Amino acid sequence: MSMRRRMVAAGLISILPVISCGAVPPISSQAIDRTVARSLQAFDVPGMAVGIVKDGKLVFAKGYGVREQGKPEPVGTRTLFQIGSNTKAFTAAALAMLIDEGKLRWDDRVIDYLPQFRLYDPYVTRELTIRDLLSHRSGLGTGAGDLMFFPETDFTREELIRGLRHLKPVTSFRSQYDYDNVLYVVAGELIAAVSGQDWEDFVANRILSPLGMSSCAPTYERVADKSDMASPHVLVDGHLKTIPVEKLQLTAAAGAVICSIDGMAKWLQAQLSQGRGPKGRPLFSAERSSEMWSMNTVKPIQPELAALTQTHFAGYGLGWELRDSFGRKIVSHTGGVPGTVTWISLVPELQLGVMVFTNQQSGVAMEVVGNQILDAYLQAPKRDWVEMGVAFATRRSAYAKVVEDEARKVSASASLPALSLEAYAGCYMDAWRGAAIVRREGDALILKFSRTDRLEGTLHPFRGNIFIVRWTDRSLDADAYVRFDQGFDRDIERMSMQALSPATDFSFDFQDLDFRRDESCSGVKQ
Hints:
With 526 residues, the chain is an alpha+beta fold. It contains 15 helices and 20 strands. It folds into two domains: 3-138 and 173-383, DD-peptidase/beta-lactamase superfamily (Beta-lactamase, 3-Layer(aba) Sandwich); 421-523, Lipocalin (Beta Barrel), CATH 2.40.128. The protein has helices at residues 3-11, 29-42, 88-100, 122-127, 130-133, 157-163, 182-195, 199-208, 252-255, 261-272, 286-292, 303-309, 363-378, 385-412, 421-424; strands at 47-54, 57-65, 81-82, 233-236, 239-242, 258-259, 297-298, 314-316, 321-325, 328-337, 340-347, 352-358, 426-430, 434-441, 444-449, 456-463, 466-471, 480-486, 492-499, 515-517.
């Protein structure tokens, strides 16, 4: 039996018995077990945890597989996972609580609380509201500025906010949905300015503690007991690899909460009860709940999704994705950090919440399990989500492989670059990301970003003044084109970048960088 099959088989032992609330569920625990087992195997996932909240109770909770490949410790319902961007709903809720207290309003301007806040466009700086911070409609491109914190850097929150003024918009203000993380960091700092507590303390003291989420924490550093925590995994050249935890201290308000299925069940119960915690005590008001679940930004509907789920609308509220499916409103979000992904969907009319957490970067694995469960409760036509997920992943992988193989083919047959290697070597400065050094080592050029140890790689000639950087850390899966531009005197003046593969994570926003040759930056901290 292969290692992967051993892990799957071990995980089929329930860590917590199914909890019955009396009514016969529309999907059996055995059917969920089968779906999870197939998903773990199909997508090479070491472990998964699944939970279902219905009518105010946790009616299903179970762990599958192992916390770390090659080790026997199983995933349980108390196993901690990084929930990634599912944190954004906590940040929205914290602001909702401050609104209930009369300390601010959704449509207050950000600069009235954070005078140092600036964006590229002075008009947007002046008009951007708290509601805009949470709605992904600022005009910034998808993932803009993420390279200030990902891979892990030594930037501070103050530096990140100061860097926002250099990020050029890609659309007009409030005209289009483009997912961003950096404005949620601003939202976290706004919470600190208004409440007198930093974001971490506010979430711990005002949300996690009142809801009884004792094992959960706002950040990795604040996890009291890390002995039952899922390790992150990625596929590197087709092989599963355990990677270190990305701590996300800098961007806590955008994605740092760590929790278990047991703990998150209490969060979902509060959400489904319009903000009421244990014994009916309000965390936030029903009015605020309705506002967070109301659409602020319209999202385009993918035809394939519409056909599968009978979706007629899609959008973003405040910390939550919104759409309909088979006549029911769906309030949902996903979360992803390196090596760990999470999926949450709520159906308010059915008082239903479904959670799927995995310790591998394959988003398809969690999607197929979550949607198979959701289908049963929505009485959707019977279909095999694992089979559909495999087909989707195969198509996506094949498309990416064509692009990547063509680039490798050109690079393998490339002639020498247009200029001598010394002509490219030097220091380059981007206004928001800072310095990057190109140095010569023997017959090769090495590109090294400042402020992080992980973005360093060899430049391989591609065509003329264009190279491909292949990062030494292969778990990044984010090789990129690097283009050098010459001035009229033929000296290199500028360096720009673009992700090589269409499968590259959007947080590698290389396309937003505009490096200018600047030898004065050679002494910058590397």
